[in-house]
Amino acid sequence: MIEAVFQDEIPFLVLALTFTLAVGLLTLVAARRRTGTRRAVLYGLWAASATGPAALTSWSGSGFADFECSVNPDVLTALTGTQGQLNLLLFMPYGLFGALATRRPLFTAATGAVFTLVIETVQTTVPFVSRLCDTDDLVTNTLGACAGALAGAVLLRFLPAGAPAGRRFVRRTAVVCTPVLALTALVWLVGIDLVRYTQPTTEVPAATQAQAKALETALTGAFGSTYALGDSSYFDNGDGVGTVSAEVASGFAELSWPDGERFTAHLLPEDRGYAVPGAEGPVTGAGDAKKVAVAYAKKYAPWAAGARVTVHREDGEGWTVSWRRLRDGVVMPMRLDVTVAASGRVTGLTARDVADPELPDARVDEARAWRIFERAQGLRPGEGKRERPVLLAQKWDGRWRVHWLMGIRLGEFPRTGVVDAVDGSVHEVPVADQSDVPLR
Fold first, then answer.
1. pTM given for the model
2. Whole-number percent of the chain with pLDDT over 70
């Protein structure tokens, strides 16, 4: 959390520190009217130790709430990393000063647990905060508050005797915390998706012989015998679907697995790009790029014939010529994107040779899709700059569906999502279509 929050934002850190000191000072002054100076100082320090972490975690994150929390079943790993240990230290003052101020360590530890739970909930549900929620932070923050309360309980044995915070104070705190805790629990039950954390590994698993052969066949089908594959690797997404990848020239080639439908190649540097026979460079504009790409497609992708062709400029990389097939206003799943450099060589390729599927009738029109998308994103009607939506045929849960691919830009932050055009349900954008080029 600490590393993610600071982000080298010195002005914000100064503002957060000033706000924390102000809250602590105001609490001290208010407490001084009801208790002695030493105890009032402890209440001020307790308030400041709560305000500091709360202020730091409110610093703007991604700009939108994802309502997800990463769950790490290996609790001990949260305590062995530097970030977890720093989190522990960050919340210890809350427990320490709370125990010393109230002389109720168990009460302080309980409020600390509620406090850290609320912080993690806010991070994943409040748009202007929008930080990553994970159980490692919840564990280390809570343990930090409890460790501080334990340290406070030990110190109280050596300090002059004093009356603990009255039952009236405890009851009032309970009256506030109980509905907060109930609301937080409800949000977790119905609104937050728990995502199992997978420990990253530095070792990339090698592809099987069948996977490597499939990728080699796809590469040969796209560029003949021009290129040789390096060692192939397999990246599993965790749901039985993954990508076979290998180095090609100074670039790489990828194939979706196990369907083998989507082939992608990036050929770098430019002089290692594929020279299309009969289509010489240089390329000076979209028209020249289209001629090269069409010559390539006639030989290596005849299945794209008849699709609609568009061209758009790639910053510093040439032009991308795209083939898309429409049926009743729906973009079919076939894809062909050919990137042509100024030299006239093909430096990028995305190919997906898929026959047009049978699709259910779309019953959600564009206007209703926008209303559903804005409601799901927590936006006001018409808020942000809308991107033109695209009606796509996509496979979801093993079935072909018709989806609205929606996008809105709020300042620097884009928001994307998928609205099912059949039943109006909302999904995340499938990885394969996140960089899809809309028809123009």
1. 0.54
2. 89
